[in-house]
Amino acid sequence: MPNLKLVTKLFFILLLAQYGCSTPTKIKKQNGSDDILINQIGYPLNAPKIALLRIDADEFQLKNSDDKTVFTGKCNDWKFWELSGDSVRLADFSAITVPGEYTIWVNDSVCSWPFKIENGVYSELADAALKSYYYARCGVDIDSFYGGKWHWQAGHPDTSVMVHTSAADKTRPEGTVISSPGGWYDAGDYGKYIVNSGISTYTLLLSSTLNAEFHEVQNLNIPESENELPDILDEALVNLKWMMTMQDPNDGGVYHKLTTKNFVGFVAPSETNEQRYVVQKSTAAALDFAATMAAASRVMEQKGLKELSKKMMEQAQEAWNWAILNPDVLYRQPQDISTGAYGDYSLSDEWFWAAAEFYINTGKRQFLDKILVNYQKPVTPTWNTVHTLGVISLLTSEKRDDFAEMEKDFMAHVDLLLKKEQLSPYHASIDKFAWGSNSDVANVGMLKLIAYQLSGDKKYLDSASNDLDYILGRNATGFSFVTGSGPKSTRNPHNRIVASDGVEDPVPGFLAGGPNISVMNDCDPKEVVRSPYPAASYVDKECSYSTNETAINWNAPLVFLVSGIDYCYPQ
Ligand code: 9MR
Ligand code: 9MR
Under 8 Å CB-to-CB from 325, ≥6 apart: which residues? Predict the structure, then answer.
């Protein structure tokens, strides 16, 4: 019989060594408590630093790694949030600017997870968030040299994709076989969707230009890392090159998506060989394609890739021409297809975005006219609401001065987000928890970073840092929503690769969709109980596609946010 006492003692010593909380005699919880919500990775030196407490105490302590109390602070009053169904007290320790590892203590008995205070605290996370796209590549072996313990064989070569009935025409009748290899898997499924590819790829391109110095020196150890381009552009090119194959060269139309008829099971990429189809051309796909290609064409031109840049603009123009002739071909999911629809039924934002990118590249009056006709005030972007992407392109281009009114509207939207954050008991800048709510938080943070670059006012940077805190654990669930980032982070995303790679730890760097109450029965409700409160309704279960899937459009603003914050502090 092992000596139980000794084993228990050893267990505690090990736990303490791992998590840094000490004073064993007083400890109630050795692990970080969900009653102290913090950013589980940490904080840059000059960033605001707050924790949220669900414990009744007037004071909190900050201890360093030597277990010394270095700061005692007062907790604010309780505040109730109807979206999480509970109350929290705010603990502010922004005053601490000495680098180190810390824990927060309350009543000398409850402690937080340990976290760091230092500049460059997010560099590992920034690499992981971007490298998630390498792991999402379709049709290539993910090699252990690059992937480490996460590696698998290629699936989905996509060299014989069939033209679906919905996409058939004279030059490419039903059953025609085309080749459309490469790109990224959209999400936890193996589909490739143009509408969602547009915003995702554009957002990475935007980070490559607005956070340029950060990305110039970033090395992800991907197959292209040794070439001249920053890795973020190599990765963006993987998807751009695939997108270029989704255009029908006969008429310039762009297929909405490339998928199987139905979602396949949770198996490895190489274990599926169901027929894949290109499905219906749509105006949304053509315009998102046109906008993304035009933006990419600019970036490639700047990098000296003249031929590629020219080709991208030509294809963008072809797609635009098709859209002019086919201005309202909405995507209608065919009866025999049940994969993601990305159906978008209002297109003026897509027109605006594409026109803005074309106007920057060409200066032509016809595009300015389209911009003016389709203008709407900026909002937080999502896959089906993209005009703000056009606004961002204009405001960060040489044409900025001509759009002073638009800039006012943009700043007004961001100011509203700041106000929302200040008023929220949880300091959240969102008050609607849609499917993929975490990407709304990341996109909000991205807008604030852009406002910071436009205005130079540090309040925007600080507020963006607050959004990252939310994503990394200071939220109503207590989870850090990025795989591999933080002791209590997402481990079981709804992602077929993560589920099938045979490795216990999830592929790092993926952002989970996050809390929402859109679908409450994705998991068996008898086995999995979700909070009825939108801000808390999240489960770290593979079955929960509505809260725990990963997606390229969710990771892209995370890449922007985390890279921008790492790059902008110290300030
Ligand atoms: O795995 C699918 C995921 O990528 C989608 O976002 C989700 C919603 O469309 O659907 C998932 O697939 C589920 C399907 O809709 C219903 N049967 C179970 C599938 C896997 O959980
Ligand atoms: O992100 C999409 C979300 O806005 C929709 O509400 C949801 C249901 O239609 O679909 C999400 O997109 C999924 C896509 O349809 C298929 N791949 C996985 C995507 C993320 O769940």
Answer: none
Same fold, 22-117 and 123-482+548-568: no
CA 43 – CA 50 distance, rounded (Å): 10
**Residue in the block written with tokens 């209590």:** 488
Class of 22-117 per CATH?
Answer: mainly beta
DSSP letter at 489 equals: B
CA separation for the pair 51, 308 (Å, rounded): 48
Q: Cβ–Cβ contacts within 10 Å for residue 205, how many?
A: 23
Q: Whats the size of the chain, residue-wise?
A: 571
CA distance 554 to 564: 16
Closest of 400, 384, 305, 317 to residue 350, by C-alpha:
384
224 noted as active-site residue: no
Q: How far is CA 307 from CA 297, 298, 358, 530, in A?
A: 10, 12, 18, 52
For the chain, the structural domain boundaries read: 22-117, 123-482+548-568
Spatial distance between the Cα atoms of 79 and 81, rounded to a whole number of angstroms: 7
Q: What is the pTM of this model?
A: 0.95
pLDDT tens, per residue, the chain with 571 residues: 445 444 444 444 444 444 444 444 444 445 899 999 999 999 999 999 999 999 999 999 999 999 999 999 999 999 999 999 999 999 999 999 999 999 999 998 999 999 999 999 999 999 999 999 999 999 999 999 999 999 999 999 999 999 999 999 999 999 999 999 999 999 999 999 999 999 999 999 999 999 999 999 999 999 999 999 999 999 999 999 999 999 999 999 999 999 999 999 999 999 999 999 999 999 999 999 999 999 999 999 999 999 999 999 999 999 999 999 999 999 999 999 999 999 999 999 999 999 999 999 999 999 999 999 999 999 999 999 999 999 999 999 999 999 999 999 999 999 999 999 999 999 999 999 999 999 999 999 999 999 999 999 999 999 999 999 999 999 999 999 999 999 999 999 999 999 999 999 999 999 999 999 999 999 999 999 999 999 999 999 999 999 999 999 999 999 999 999 999 997 5
Of residues 158, 421, 494, 501, which has the active-site annotation? 494
CATH class of 123-482+548-568: mainly alpha
Nearest-CA residue for ligand 1 atom 7 is 545
- Contact predicate 523/544, CB 8 Å: yes
Rounded CA-CA distance 173/91 in Å is 64
Identify which ligand lies nearest to the alpha carbon of 495.
Answer: 1
Atom of ligand 1 nearest to the CA of 187: 4
- The ligand with the least distance to the CA atom of 544 is 1
What residues are in contact with ligand 2 under a 6 Å CB criterion?
A: 186-187, 189, 191, 340, 342, 435-436, 545, 549, 551
